């Protein structure tokens, strides 16, 4: 139900856009996000679009460099990553969380649905 694509290898300072195709099941009652994980470390939230799509939120480490967006006509979530750094190397996951009382979250524990991930390597 969540399928990521667009990962790859890029040089420091370069750009990359990730895509996540999601099923129509994920309507306005879900917030959609990108999270990432480095081997041996916990998963961390990178960027999220609130349920209903009104607001976006970012981790401090990517503010000003990454942009999350959603095209509901195409059922696709995007993450545009600019000025990539070595520390951005990770497996990136698309995820969806049901908006029960909260409209958004960057906490990995608040997401019920996950994609398989796409690797981003910055060198």
Write a short abstract of this structure.
The protein has strands spanning 2-5, 8-10, 16-22, 30-37, 44-49, 56-58, 66-71, 76-81, 90-98, 113-114, 118-122.
Task: Identify the notable features of this structure and list them briefly.
48% strand; 123 residues; 11 strands; mainly beta; seven-stranded mixed β-sheet; four-stranded antiparallel β-sheet
Produce the secondary structure layout.
Layout: E1 2-5, E2 8-10, E3 16-22, E4 30-37, E5 44-49, E6 56-58, E7 66-71, E8 76-81, E9 90-98, E10 113-114, E11 118-122
Parallel strand pairs: 2-11
Antiparallel strand pairs: 1-3, 3-8, 4-5, 4-9, 5-6, 7-8, 9-10, 9-11
Largest sheet: 7 strands, mixed
Number of helices: 0
| Backbone CA Rg | 13 Å
Residue fraction in strands: over 45%
What is the H/E string? EEEEEEEEEEE
Shape: globular
Q: What structural class do helix, strand and pairing data support? A: mainly beta
Beta-strand segment tally: 11
Average pLDDT taken over every residue:
96
The low-confidence runs, each spanning 5 or more residues with pLDDT under 50, are none
Instruction: Give the helix proportion (percent range).
Output: under 10%
Distance between the ends: 31 Å
Describe this structure in words.
The chain is an all-beta fold and 123 residues long. The chain is built from no helices and 11 strands. The strands form 2 sheets. Strands 2, 4, 5, 6, 9, 10 and 11 form a 7-stranded mixed sheet that branches. Strands 1-3-8-7 form a 4-stranded antiparallel sheet, with no helix packed on it. A hairpin with a 6-residue loop joins β4 (30-37) and β5. The mean pLDDT is 96.
């Amino acid at each position: 139900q969540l399928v990521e694509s667009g990962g790859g290898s890029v040089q420091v300072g370069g750009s990359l856009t990730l895509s996540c195709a999601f099923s129509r099941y994920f309507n306005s009652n879900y917030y959609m996000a990108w999270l990432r994980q480095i081997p041996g470390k916990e998963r961390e939230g990178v960027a999220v679009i609130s349920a209903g799509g009104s607001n976006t939120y970012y981790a401090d480490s990517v503010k000003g460099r990454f942009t999350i967006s959603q095209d509901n006509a195409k059922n696709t979530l995007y993450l545009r990553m600019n000025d990539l750094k070595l520390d951005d190397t990770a497996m990136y996951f698309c995820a969806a969380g049901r908006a029960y009382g909260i409209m958004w979250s960057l906490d990995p524990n608040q997401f019920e649905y996950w994609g398989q991930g796409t690797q981003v390597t910055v060198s």
